[in-house]
Amino acid sequence: MKHMNSEVKEERTSNKNRIDLFLVPIVLIAAFLNLFKIWTDEYANAYYTAAVKSMLQSFHNFFYASFDPGGYVTIDKPPVVFWIQTISAKIFGFHGWSVILPQALAGIGSVLLLYVLVKRTFGVWAGRFAALAMALTPIVPAVSRTNNIDSMLVFTLLVATWMLFRAVRTAKFGWVLAAFAMIGVAFNMKMLQAYMVLPAFYVFYVVATKITWKKKIAFLTTATALMLAVSVSWAVVVDSTSADKRPYMGSSQTNSVLELAFGYNGINRLTGNTSVTGSGHKQPAQTEQQTASSETKQTSNSSADSSQSSNQRKSSSSQKMQAPGGGNQNGMFNTGNPGPFRLFQKGLSDQISWLLPFVIFSIVGLFAGVKFKGPYTTKQKESLFWLAWLLPVAVFFSIAGFFHQYYLIMLAPPIAAFAGAGAVALWSMYKQHNGWKSWLLPGGILTTAALQVYIMSPYVSSIGVAPIAGVGALGVILALVLAVRKQRKNSLTNYLGAAAMVVLLAMPAYWAMTPIIYGGNSMLPSAGPDSSSGMGGPPSTATNSKQSGFNGMQPPGSSSGNSSSNGGQMPGGSSNNGQMQPPSSSSNSGQMQMPGGSSNNSQMPNSSSSKSSSSKRKSGGMNAEVNQKLLNYLTKNNTGEKYLFATTDSTSAAPYIIKTGKPVMAMGGFSGSDPILTVSKLKAMIKKGEVKYFYLSGMGKGGQSDVITWIKDNSKEIPSSKWQSTSSSAQQGPSGNGTLYEITLK
Questions:
Q1: What is the largest CA-CA distance in the chain?
Q2: What pLDDT shows up at residue 702?
Q3: Which residues neighbour 182 within 8 Å (Cβ) at sequence distance 6 or greater?
Q4: Residue 209 to residue 201: CA distance in whole angstroms
Q5: N or C: which end of the chain has fewer CB within 10 A?
Q6: d(Cα 537, Cα 527) in Å, to the nearest integer?
Q7: Dist CA 355 CA 452 (whole Å)
Q8: CA–CA dist 450, 106 (Å, integer)
Q9: Which tens digit of pLDDT belongs to each residue from 158-212?
């Protein structure tokens, strides 16, 4: 802290030492949080891992990002990140860790990029603090340890930011084009989410460049046109290709990439109308919670032994999830209720908001005395950039109808940038006794510590009282002591300032480690003592690791001879105003079951039996187990059919694609609601000998009810004794065991 007052000295030190020795441990921390034990997650997010398995088999599958090796349907996202994952799997072999590795490296790269971006203008100490804050933002490593897209998306947008800053410094139009083209690449990772940063890019370029308005408009118009061209390039190729020569565009209702981009993955995320049935009637987001249930059919991506987890993880099976201060948890997937304080609600605050009060005080300090008409310093211009990134994204997540907790990684760069730049700015104001501004530092420390106590309060049963009381007490003491010692200049004051930063980062650091300590969730990643559940809510009182969330899903055909009372609903019953309720303690021994399966020690065995302490965690969600008896039966009786079997959605299909590399047809796409198949098309496929076995579990019918009815009316039911596992270790799901049918048409 004592060096932060002299930016000239910092720059000289930085230039003298090409490698910033303070940066080394920060990078090592990021590497540990992002990489450690990713090798224990064998299947990662099975939906995306199955796509990589398919993409490895042909260029056709690779280009279109086909979910299945048969090229029947694509995944629900553009292909760029999955191209990278497929290349990684090609180089290192097909493993869970090889498809996770690109995202883990992107998480580390984002830490380094933020250091470079902040250091150049705000000083080396600001860069260090920003990099450390980015590394310790809990949702960042939680997402980066999976094969979800968002970590790579943020890294790409930070690369675009670096290009934009360079364009302003060098006054070269080529860098402007490169920056906006990079956003176009990011669009082909996660579509409209990439455009969230556009306000920051436009505002910064207009404010920071010293050229005429005519040139500004011309340059930005040209760059935007290039961005749009890059954005839609893949979509235009796909949509202009005959439908019978490519896979169906998964999760779209019209087999169109552009409809997917601006509908399901676009505007509907804001409105919450993300579920569209085959009849074309939009459903509210609550229905998405039920019909797209494979998004929550989670298994634990646990890297801790189940014996360790049983003492550390808490079950959600005996009581409803509680928000801070009491009350039932509201909001889909624990994303709270829309409103101006949504980011401070349980479920979101512990993922991203640990430093938000300090950031607010930093923004006040950085913009203090700024006049609307300028002139602006470089620091003020770049602060405006980060503010124009932060505010629109924060507003979106405050009002959006449907998103997942891990999307919040989009807020991590501006929050970390302001934390680093603000720490230096507020410290300088404090040391210089700069009037009311000198109170911003102790004020920021005090309010941030108070928020952190609030964030941790629901987790007292998991983490104990000591860390909560410690952060609260130390935050108050350090803030008060700094306030009292404002007029004194000595080394003790410097140490107090450094200690305050350590206190404010201590619990975010612990939260960032929870996916390693407690196990993560590859499909709906989140951080916290319940990170393996993917629900992001405070745990309850049960301690059995087998009951600790949405863990190992049941393979098709496995049975324990029990029946569940939950029907085809979400855990514990139907949605109530978007509220997700765990089952009562009387429901199947309190296990939290999803449609298609229940908790089974977080493992995905290749046979019906499993060991409780496997060194490899075959997690990956989505019913990520393979019933070996069913697989043996299907393989033995395959007479040259293209598809091993067909099923309603990707839930049952993914693990069999991963294990065998053979085509398995998800008739209704990801959630089973895509209007891909008709009865006439299915008849033609059967007559051609492309498919004859159908596994129907009662889930994911969506817009294919006519097809399923026809299958049942025209098929022969295969006796369960021929293919169904009866191992007592397998758990029965609420929708039953499903039925295997055979159809042959002449």
A1: 93
A2: 55
A3: 156, 157, 159, 160, 163
A4: 12
A5: C
A6: 10
A7: 8
A8: 32
A9: 999 999 999 999 999 999 999 999 999 999 999 999 999 999 999 999 999 999 9
